[in-house]
Design goal:
Number of domains: 2
Number of helices: 5
CATH topology of the largest domain: Alpha-Beta Plaits
CATH class of the largest domain: Alpha Beta
Helix content: 40-55%
Structural class: alpha+beta
Strand content: 15-25%
Shape: globular
CATH architecture of the largest domain: 2-Layer Sandwich
Distance between the termini: 29 Å
Strand order of the largest sheet: 2-3-1-4
Largest sheet: 4 strands, antiparallel
Order of helices and strands: EHEEHEHHH
Number of strands: 4
Length: 140
């Protein structure tokens, strides 16, 4: 996987992006950071397939000033169909969960968390049931 998510304080995304881009280049991991203002996170995307894993493995987290948390992520899911969002999520998880062994649903930023607290338990339950049944949403 070539992407790393870094949580930071909302408003410090540009600083976090500059820091991870610099530290990654020193490790010969080249890529770019995606920044969304006041989101509380940055996505660093390396050009090589395993850049995310290499970065998390070789960069001491304690060397980062602006990041609160750092983890490798797979492909970003976009434009999920409103009638069935679970099937694409479960499909992406198959073959990946064995590597991590844990499914975690998180939200960056406190304001987003308040609304997400209502929805995420339902999504988490549906995804775990779908994964257990081979990824078919019609069996949820």
């Amino acid at each position: 996987m070539n992407k790393v998510v870094l949580y930071c304080r909302p408003g410090f995304e540009k600083e976090c992006a500059a820091e991870i881009t610099d530290k990654a280049a020193r490790l010969e991991v080249f890529g770019f950071a995606r920044v969304k203002e006041d989101s509380g996170y940055v996505i660093f995307e390396g050009y090589q397939q395993d850049d995310g894993e290499k970065l998390v493995r070789d960069l001491p987290f304690s060397s980062l000033i602006f990041a609160r948390q750092m983890f490798v992520v797979g492909e970003l899911l976009r434009d999920l169909p409103p009638e069935d969002r679970i099937t694409p999520i479960v499909g992406m998880l198959q073959g990946v969960v064995e590597k991590g062994g844990e499914l975690r649903v998180e939200v960056a930023g406190y304001q987003r968390k308040q609304r997400a607290d209502e929805v995420l338990p339902q999504v988490y339950g549906a995804v775990t049931r779908g994964a257990a049944r081979g990824g078919r949403a019609d069996q949820l």
